[in-house]
Amino acid sequence: MMSSEQTRSRGRRVIAGALGVALVGGLSLTVPAAANAAPVRAAVADEPASLVALYDFSEESGTIAHDASTHGNDATVVGGDSWNSGYMQFTGANHVKMPNDLLAGRSAATIVIETSPQALTGAKFLWNIGGAAGPSSGQGQFFIQPVAPRVAITKTNWSGEQTVTSPTKLVEGQWQSVAATIAKNPDGTTSTLRLFIDGAQVAEKTDSSVNLTDLLTHTVNYIGKSAYPADTQYQGKVSTFRVYEEALPAATLTEIAATDAASAATETVAAIDLAAVNAQSLDAVETNLTLPTAGGVTWTSSEPGIVAADGTVTQPESDTVVTLTAVSAVRGVQSTPRTFPVTVLRDPAASDKAQRDLDAISIADTDDIRSNFALPASGSRYGSALTWQSSSPSIVDVAGTAQTAPGIVTRPEGGDAKVMLTVTATIDGETATREIALVVRAAYDMPATTDYIFAHFTGTEGSASDEQIYFATSRDAKVFTDTRPAGAPVLSTERNAGEGEGGVRDPFLVRSPEGDRFYLIATDLSIYHRGGWGNAHATEDGSTELVIWESTDLVNWSEPRLSDVAGEIPNAGMAWAPEAIWDEVTGQYYVYWATRADGNTAFGDSVDIYLSTTRDFRTFSTPVKWIDREHSIIDTTVIKVGDWYYRASGDGEITIERSKNLAATTASALPAATGTDQQWVLVGTLQSILQGSGTCAAGTNYTGACLEGPEFFQYNDDDRAGAQQLYGLLADQYATGRGYVPFRTTDLASTSNTVWSKASDVNLGAIKKRHGGIVPITAAEYQRVMFHYAGVGADPDLKLSSAVTTRCVAGKVALAVSVTNDDSRAADVVITTPFGDKTVKALQAGKTVTQTVSTRQSAIAAASIAVQGTASDASYSASTFYETRTCG
């Protein structure tokens, strides 16, 4: 028992016996706490004498979690403290180390934790008592695995576990009391394990052959960390952690659950930081507010017509102070209300609305426009009508056509161009205008493709680096060279809370229609971090975002960004295996991927293919269900041949269909055997075309039981071996873990096994290749990738720089163009201007040359000059602008 002085000094929580009984009867308790102040702990009453340690996480700083019992069993926070007004946030990177031998020699125990879980996936422990564990040996552990959830005890490791699993799952974002008890049975040789959630017993094992006394090592006593070093750490809030040296009866655990509910409710409200979760100032609110609801929080508003309970804001006629009130209820126990005053600014004048809609417009890469982009028709803030004008409609068309939306780009010949867009916002009779300057790159003369790049992941899932992006290259699509060794990806993501899973799978490389921009899109998923497929739940609570990079040269890539493409789909649980294809008619990319959305399917399995459009891989249209099958359907790939689109999908088979209408939706139990050319109609399956049979291991079975991840690509002209056309199809041998197997055909519409074949002459390289894609590239692009990633060959990019100035000579404007060679190689240089060209032969390394071009005019408008540099194995190309100039 604690003294009253101890109780007052630390405000520790112990059982409120009579109070707990009242709560079980359904009464609601309001725990007194001053509004906007630190929480006041629940009432103090009798605590079982068997208490060994009590951590209530009421600290405000430091790395010590003090023991509120009389035993002095203080614990240590490892990996970063995160105190929050009475609870601690377990971030997935921190845990608590309790003292050694906390339960050593005991034959019975109870452990109770009040927690609000997050990220209930993967292999992780809620807590562990005992020693270390490994794949093949261990020192014995007593623990709860929260994902199942289950309580287990073993003398060694997983292979000897005695366990009992609850049919009742824990709920993310909700406070729950989770208790485990163990006690030896009267026979003295077995023990009884019990698991409780919210004070109610949910599972029991009465014949555990492992007892608490069998645990001889007690040095790995953790909260939030597993005994297995490879497991992920726990994520969630923890309000209270109690350890007893007896198996407490159910009635006492019910009382503990009620007492801890009161504290958790109060702490939840006390920890709300409304300013931190809203980008706008609470003293100048203009748009909808984010009102946190995790932990059973509900909101009311003093002016619901101005700020609704869900945070929706309707601006009033004059600035108004609105009082928002937050209350948390945990298992029927309600906290004291906490108030938050916010000032909602008056509804702005129509002219201000128009201006704010203009200010919110964002066009990506305004200084590097290379392709069509989206122009909004209405303001994102207030819905102003937006109209656009272009200073050069022949370069940037803002009118559009019946089939193509405004924002059509026709790149100029001979040099970059500056284009000014003028956008006018109109609302309630008021207008405002904004100018947006663009630099449109000169037309790119796409060279013939002669080589290949293969973007993939390795898929072994044994380390974080396996599920990242790797590149391999080939000169002929027969022999591939890995540009990096295993464990050294060319692109990767990190695991950060709220910023992706730290793994990328199923990469797909997209070349823009102009040829000089690439997008790499991939699945945001880490099976490694989720603890393996058995624990992953990846289709149920996976990311609905895609990971996206972009580059103009395959070497210099943007930072990865996440785009939520599937979040609007009801019950979406994932966004897997994205691909994209450019549509010339509508001037945009069609992006497609697999999403599981329970209750949102017409035929059988909930995993279907969805379709969206984009021009910049930043803004995506509302997704539509593109393919709905009786079976799960994933991993769709598309290639265009003439007027026909061909697609292959994993739907229990590797099914090949074709249509002249890319966007046509299909919903049928099985692929359509007949139809018009505007519908998707079955060509055949890989199994039927190649007359497959036998087993996956034999490599002669081509059904979806053996293969997944189909990927189409087209062979370069110099690799067709005399065929008019030649196409490749890769399929991932996931069932046997062998990675990709290649197939070829000269006719995608054929169902003949003399036209289709399994390619036996392909060497994909040392690293296993899983779900990626092959893209034809130019000789210079191949050279660049090999130089920068594999350290092979010469750099194909000359290090030149150029500048242009204007001057007046005898009343006429002259251009002075300077070119500096910062490379080690001599370069031939061609300078192209609107007024004539200049050629410089063999500009030596480290030298600068200046060429003067007379315009023969007294006034010139702003324009650009182009500089081309070449060496035997390298090149340079750039445009440089000069301003308007008048002489005389």
Can you put this structure into words, describing what you see?
Helices cover 8% and strands 38% of the residues. The chain has 888 residues and is mainly β. The strands form 13 sheets. Strands 2, 5, 6, 8, 13, 14, 15 and 17 form an eight-stranded antiparallel sheet that branches. Strands 3-4-7-16-9-10-11-12 form an eight-stranded antiparallel sheet, with no helix packed on it. Strands 1, 18, 19, 20 and 21 form a five-stranded mixed sheet that branches.
Key words describing this protein structure:
disordered N terminus, 8 helices, globular, eight-stranded antiparallel beta sheet, mainly beta, single chain, 38% strand, 888 residues
For the largest beta-sheet, the strand count, sense and barrel status come to: 8 strands, antiparallel
Helix segment tally: 8
Q: How far is it from the N-terminal to the C-terminal residue, by CA?
A: 99 Å
The general outline is globular
Strand content: 35-45%
Number of strands: 56
Instruction: Name the poorly predicted regions.
Output: 1-13, 16-44
Percent of residues in helices comes to under 10%
Structural class based on helices, strands and sheet pairing: mainly beta
Average pLDDT for all residues: 92
Radius of gyration: 33 Å
Short description:
Helix content is 8%, strand content 38%.
Q: Mind sketching the topology for me?
A:
Blueprint: H1 4-10, H2 17-24, E1 30-31, E2 51-55, E3 64-65, E4 75-78, E5 83-84, E6 87-91, E7 95-97, E8 108-118, E9 127-130, E10 141-145, E11 150-154, E12 162-165, E13 176-184, E14 191-197, E15 200-208, E16 222-223, E17 235-244, H3 250-270, E18 297-301, E19 320-330, E20 333-335, E21 338-344, H4 350-359, E22 385-390, E23 396-397, E24 408-409, E25 417-427, E26 430-440, E27 451-457, E28 470-474, E29 480-482, E30 504-511, E31 518-524, H5 533-536, H6 538-541, E32 545-551, E33 561-564, E34 576-583, E35 588-596, E36 607-614, E37 624-628, E38 634-641, E39 644-650, E40 654-659, E41 666-667, E42 681-685, H7 686-689, E43 708-714, E44 727-732, E45 740-745, E46 756-758, E47 770-777, H8 779-790, E48 800-809, E49 812-821, E50 827-833, E51 836-843, E52 848-854, E53 859-860, E54 863-871, E55 874-882, E56 885-886
Parallel strand pairs: 1-20, 37-41
Antiparallel strand pairs: 2-17, 3-4, 4-7, 5-6, 6-17, 7-16, 8-13, 8-17, 9-10, 9-16, 10-11, 11-12, 13-14, 14-15, 18-19, 19-20, 19-21, 22-25, 23-24, 25-26, 27-28, 27-47, 28-29, 30-31, 31-32, 32-33, 34-35, 35-36, 36-37, 38-39, 39-40, 40-42, 43-44, 44-45, 45-46, 48-49, 49-52, 50-51, 50-54, 53-56, ...
